[in-house]
Amino acid sequence: MASHTEGDELRPPEGETLPPIPLAFLLCDQVITDAATKKKTVVGIFDRIWVSKFPTEHKPVALYARMYDAVGEHEVKVEYVKVKDESVLAQATGKLHVQDRHKPVEFAISFSAIPIPEPGEYEFRLWVGNRYVQRVRFTAELLPTQQAR
Fold first, then answer.
1. Measured in Å, how far apart are the chain's first and last C-alpha atoms?
2. How far is CA 78 from CA 2, 64, 131, 133, in A?
3. What 3-state DSSP class applies to 144?
4. How many CB atoms lie within 10 A of CB 106?
5. Best CA proximity match to 131, nearest among 31, 12, 42
6. Quick count: other Cβ atoms within 10 Å of Cβ 119?
7. Is the pTM of this model over 0.70?
């Protein structure tokens, strides 16, 4: 067993990066970033969408992510998936640059609209590198007044 002395930090093997630990992954209407402070305001968190008919689309949609304990450069991918058949309906990609693993990193992703082909469960899946790290799910349903028709 390797010994650990005070002041040592757990480090990944040479050439590897640490995977981030998700602190928050929220589905909302909008994420506003203050230009001066860079603080983010998350507006309209939801987990259910009521619609008058299917297929439809919902807009706007935003995701807020906050992670900790990562360092290095990471490829980030968000997949929008229909849970019933695991079909990917949309995707966003980017890069995450983390200088200090002891400081949280946060970002927002906006989709102008997302398709909702039928009632059911949908989710956004967050991947960092080749690692699945988090998901956020919502349910799409007909408005109660439309169900009787």
1. 68
2. 37, 11, 12, 10
3. helix
4. 16
5. 12
6. 14
7. yes
Which two three-digit tokens encode residue 80? 């929008």
Annotated domain spans of the chain: 21-147
Dihedral angle sign, alpha carbons of residues 110, 78, 26, 56: positive
Helix (H, G, I), strand (E, B) or coil at 146: helix
CATH of domain 21-147: 2.60.40.10
Q: Which amino acid is at 148?
A: A
pLDDT in tens, 40-78: 999 999 999 999 999 999 999 999 999 988 778 889 999
The backbone region for 58, taken as left when phi is positive above 0, alpha when psi lies in -120 to 50, beta otherwise, is: beta
d(CA 124, CA 79): 5
**Which tokens hold the place of 90?**
């949309």
